[in-house]
Fold each of these.
Amino acid sequence: TDTSGGGGSQCVKTTYSTCPDLDVAFILDGSGSMSRSFGNHPHGFYALMEMLKDWVKTIPLTGDDHTVGAASTARGGTFRITFIQFSKADALPQEDHPTGCAVGACTNGLLSGNLNELLGDISWHESHYQAEWTYLHAALKDVADNTFTTSQSPPHRQHVVVIIADGGLTDYNGDACSG
């Protein structure tokens, strides 16, 4: 259905039931450069958090949280999400995630389809903006080791990683995107 009004080819589904169930890990750039203005917003990282709060309210969540619904077999275009902020290269000794990624206090980096948990995690990231470097490798390792495991994400669910960053991605050996 074209809803753009301009004769474009935008396709909008009125139901998600024909879409696959998705487990989505958002890897969020927590580097210092994200503090720059973004469009009309004076701070890019906070603009991103506001956008995610609005967006997560519009998608069909499973309604399951990570403790009850991690092995849910509900089918039909539902979402479970986690948010991981990447910036630091090394974890502090008291941190659960060995790669040093900041995970929300509500889900601890596990997938959730519970709106209140997800909004809580976004708020946690908003108040714990790291403002350091952009170490992507650690965040990808964290998702592989802690999020998209068989016990957390059953095989019938599709795995999606969304990386949101404002520029170059740095790791110990330089640019994370170069071969």
Amino acid sequence: YQRRVRGGMMLFLTRRLMSTSVKKTQKPKLLEKSEVDNLHQKLRSGWTISPDGKKIARNYKLKNFKEVISFVNKVADVAETDQHHPDLHIVNYNNLNIELWTHDVNGLSEKDFVLASKIDHLNINL
């Protein structure tokens, strides 16, 4: 009986994971300029849209190099969970520039703004 319950539970989890992974593999939609502007307004200040409208970026100035590396690791954890990876640039010793764009659509998708919002809500010492 326990095997059947566990087997049933495993089947349920497998189906659930498969349906989740199908959603993650769907190609994101390139956002229209009006959608980009709308989502941009919902982000915390500091995020900028590139002149060509294909990327959003934000610079974080932290206290020291160790704080930058700690923040990079937090961003990496969120990015891995979302399977959406930003370009990270450490400048000097205490500045981190983050660029987001969706390679699949060569521009901005909703995924970029979701990740930007998650990054904004990470606990960091600015």
Amino acid sequence: MLQLFERWTGEATPYGEEEEWVVTGTDGCAVRDCESLRSRFLGVIDSGCNITVRCVRGNRVLVTSPIEGWASIKNEEGTVIVRRAKPLYCPLAEAMYSDMATSMLAHLGLGGMVTFLSLFLMHEETKKRK
């Protein structure tokens, strides 16, 4: 089931409201000029610092503060380097999967979680028909 969650992390969220995130990587997080990992390096935000994120696209976030640029959510080893400061809340998911739901919702955001729940419910309906 976790693979299904991860499958939807590549979904782009539209530009919109900014969210508070926090840098959790031990070496901080690198910020680049563009979404591409090959773009110009702008600097490193230290671990523990709060950042403001405007957009999530796949494994990348558009940071608007304290420096403007793109950062990775996970490093090459799959370790989370930045995460939402406050996990999003979804009552239905919370009721269904409590701890797992909170963790996944924090990573996916509301749009990804709604997509997952839709797929999950369709899967359950298919199982009932068999």
Amino acid sequence: MVLGEANGSTTSLINCFRQEKKRDTIATDGIEINDWIETTTHQNQKITITFNTWDFAGQDIYLITHQFFLSGRSIFLVVFNPFDNSLVKVGYWLKSLESKLDKVPVLLVATHADDKTCNPTFITQVTDRVNNLYTQLNLPQLQKQGLIFVSSKTEKGLDTLRQLLVEMSLNQPSMGEELPARYRVLEDMILDARKISIPPTLVWSEWQKLAEKCAVNAGELSQVTDLFHELGLLVHFNDKTRNLNDLVILDPQWLAKAMASIISLKNSMAKDGILRNSDWPFIWRTAEFPQKIHSRLIALLETFEILFQIDRAHITASSVAGLNYTHLQEGLLIESSSYCIIPALLKPDRPNDLYMFWPRFDTQPTCARYYTFEFCPSGFFSRLMVRLMHISQPLTLWQNGIVLGVGQERAFLEMPPLLAKPRLRVEVRSNKLPTSLFRELIQIIEGLIEGCFAQDAQIFRFCACTHCLLKNSNSPFLFPLNTVLKSFTEKKTFMYCRRYRPVFVLQLIP
């Protein structure tokens, strides 16, 4: 799997491996999946290794979908330009892999080795910067395979990189595993089904029937499915909460294209995060996305939390920050089921009328929880927004925040960008504490965290002082959640804000 920046360097590198002549390429749009075959000698025998290459687009907007395709049975190349003084994107990819996968091999590849200034002194400087980055990030779950300098233009360093990848693949624990013949037959049937199935998807019962034709019984099917998912032959998630466990996607490239078509740099229809259902035929114009499957495909993308369909309710045009379609005026109702909201593409700024829905000063009892992350993958909050919209119509929303209303309760959630450490703020106002809405929000957030992060991810939870919230403080005193829970189990009635103001424990964890 090749990860990198938004400048086409990953694609150029893969083209060199595949010995394709076109070296000057445009940036990848989503994910491109191809094969590269390498012949080598191992233990005095000539062998052939087939590398399944996944070229991930480096633009920030695509990062929200990449998470669905990362596999633990992979070698990861993180490609970067050493003349860029910032290693921010390198750090992002390393932390993404650390948070999602366990003990995967990662090799850093620096491009532009043909540049005259890429001399031994420069290489030493870059190596020091990379080592400092590793030290700063502290990534014990990654198998660091070093740093290599290459040039796609002159092919300098490519033979060394090619040989290094061969050695890394031969050292993988799964390399050389003998798959049962019936698994091979099932693999061939998957490849055949890709050509004739539109869309290339099966529900679990259909997948089970296909496997039975290859003598793969129901008892081993889950294990085989997980293996094929890790190998990139299909896409399947054991996620019962969103009904993903019943869906098997036979062609990962098809799913990647479907996702990329919504957030593509080439698509301007959903630029502000709102997409009319009448626009879908103009987005999905190719034969692989016929109009008869559009409704199923939209539902699939909603299941993957890329978008949310407005249905069973009305929402005013003013409730979506930055909505600027000329045919929609302030306060005009958007007709039911006629639009989709794509949270990742919403405008980033708070709406001007935010305080109509969430007044700056309010006397209602308020409870709040703050989550601080050492690292948070791109797309976490947009996925959270989709989950939240399933429980309540949004009163207003923007790329980094949302205000919800359920009965007499109001909720404000925001994850501001550009903080040194990502922080999620969750506040609920109600006539009475405790509040059922707050509990439901926390349950949704914790469920998403469980699916997005490794078990040992550093996530810190805090409860905000209710007195500070009533005073509308921008910096309420924060009690560590584990301390609050300890006081609760010890049956303490109060805790103390800044050591002198008593706060009811039950109001901190409603």
